[in-house]
Amino acid sequence: MTVFVIESPFQVMNAIEAVHHFKFKDNVLIVLLSGLFSKESYERIIDKKQWKEVRYIPFRYKLTNSDFGLHPPKNVYERMQELYLTLDRSVKKKVINNMCRSLGRVDNLVLGSYRRYYDIHMRHIANNVDHNRLFLIDVGTDTLEIGRQRIEEHNAGSGVLGDEPAKSLKSMLRDKLVEWDGTGVDSLTFFTSYDFEVSDPDRVIKNDYRYFKSLADRAAVSDCVWFIAQPLVEQEYLTHEVYVRYLAKVKQYFSGRPVFYIPHPRESGRYIDLARDEFGFETKRFDVPVEYAVTVGGSRPQCIASFFSSALENFAVIFGNRIDIKAFYLHVSDLLKNHESVDEVYSLYVSKGMDIEVVS
Questions:
Q1: What is the Cα–Cα distance from 348 to 158, expressed in whole angstroms?
Q2: Which of 28, 26, 22 is CA-nearest to residue 4?
């Protein structure tokens, strides 16, 4: 049996590709409903006839802007928030532990994320489901970050560094009832469209989107441009002023051509309105991943553009030079964080000879 645990419709698309690539049998799909995507958005791309079982597990986080691990509560209100978050995590851990026990031993465990800090419940699942082999499907550019984290873990070693100090009863109870087990596994296999180095015994298997390529050939071509947005201000990559300046450059570059602005699920309505009202972009929304909409839908644009969205690489793999793909370069001096990571993405476009034009 192969079990997939995913948290976004895009991960469903990659799960479908993995089933076809590896010819997995007896496939179980588990969707953690975090609140970012509705159950209906998953149901639009999940054909239950293709799965042995499909489970939906409520997993919605609230008060996501509060991190009392970094900033201890300062007043009674914040102490109440901390207590709520502790109890909420305890409930979620019990739900996940019950799920893990219900699965028994599986041949392949396929996760939708494995980040060290933000998706630590996925690591907990890997440590609590008895499996023969662990796979990680693409999670956009976060896949590159996970690859770097895995190298750091291997370089640090997994041996015992010495006796751990004795824990208090409170700490032991918290570990048992509240905290996730974020210990890194010995090895995992990346199933990804990205090319990057990993350290032994991790492996990379190329996702060439062969299944979705076969569907893409049916799509008719329109003469418009789709600009795939990213929540760059919300995620603190750019200031508001700099982001507006880059949008103006995009508008100027495509002057005279019909451009559709494709909002990101985590993007603020403020920037969707700005793209429409100030720059005159038409907006086009999808309830499915944009890659899925193009390959399975009836038409595709003549040009796809963005900054460093993972969708660009996916389209390059699926369509090659049959679609015009442009990545607008964000200068290092304009970025507020992750300078090397972002530049690495642009370098991959060029060094790997992909059908992606980097526009300076």
A1: 30
A2: 28
What is the rounded (10 degree) CA torsion for 12, 15, 21, 27?
-120
* Environment class of 55 (CB within 10 Å of its CB; exposed 0-12, middle 13-18, buried 19+): middle
DSSP 48: G
pLDDT computed for residue 159 by the predictor: 41
> Which among 243, 280, 281 has a CA at the least distance from the CA of 262?
281
Q: How far is 20 from 31, CA to CA, in rounded Å?
A: 19
DSSP state of 353: T
Domain end residue (candidates: 156, 178, 207): 207
Residue 165: what pLDDT?
Answer: 61
Coil, strand or helix: which one is 179?
Answer: coil
Domain count, the chain: 2
Residue 156 is predicted with a pLDDT of 81
Report the Cα 268 to chain-centroid distance in Å: 18
Rounded Cα gap, residues 31 and 38, in angstroms: 11
Predicted pLDDT of residue 162: 43
- pLDDT at res. 82: 76
Q: What is the pLDDT of residue 166?
A: 63
262 and 160 belong to one structural domain: no
Task: Say which DSSP state 50 is in.
Answer: G
pLDDT of 117 reads: 75
Q: Which domain holds residue 309?
A: 213-359
pLDDT at 70 (0 to 100): 56
In this structure, the answer to whether residues 173 and 248 fall within a common structural domain is no
Bridge partner list, 221: 300
Nearest 5 degrees, angle CA 53-CA 99-CA 146? 95
All residue ranges of the chain with pLDDT < 70 are 62-72, 158-173, 175, 297-298
Q: How far is CA 177 from CA 87, 92, 94, 303, in A?
A: 9, 10, 8, 51
Q: How many CB atoms lie within 10 A of CB 29?
A: 25
Residue partners of 42: CB distance under 8 A and separation at least 6: 9, 12, 31, 56
202 in Cβ contact with 187 (< 8 Å): yes
Cβ(250)–Cβ(258) below 8 Å = no
pLDDT of residue 160: 39
